[in-house]
Design brief:
Helix content: 10-25%
Largest sheet: 3 strands, parallel
Distance between the termini: 24 Å
Order of helices and strands: EHEHE
Number of strands: 3
Shape: globular
Number of helices: 2
Length: about 90
């Protein structure tokens, strides 16, 4: 997998992924810590089956201390329906 190296052209960053044991998988944090997120607005979209956002907001604030971690959305996977014709 190739990592992003620059997000300078963006003001807002959306971090999306699954909940693994109450937070994002570690590879998400590895990617975020490799980027300069100074002054960026970071938004969260997380899929989950039970804990909602768990500890992800706290973990993101620790991994992105120079960014503003803002609004979040927790999507319960069992309630999601696949797009017609796709699995």
């Amino acid at each position: 997998m190739k990592m992003l190296t620059d997000v300078a052209a963006y003001e807002r960053i959306i971090v999306a992924g699954p909940c693994w044991w109450g937070t994002f998988p570690m590879f998400v944090f590895t990617q975020l810590e490799a980027l300069d997120l100074s002054g960026k607005d970071v938004y969260v979209l997380m899929t989950h089956e039970a804990p909602g956002l768990g500890q992800v907001m706290r973990d993101l604030q620790q991994s992105c201390p120079t960014a503003s971690v803002l609004d979040s959305l927790a999507a319960h996977g069992a309630d999601a329906e696949p797009e017609q014709g796709r699995l």
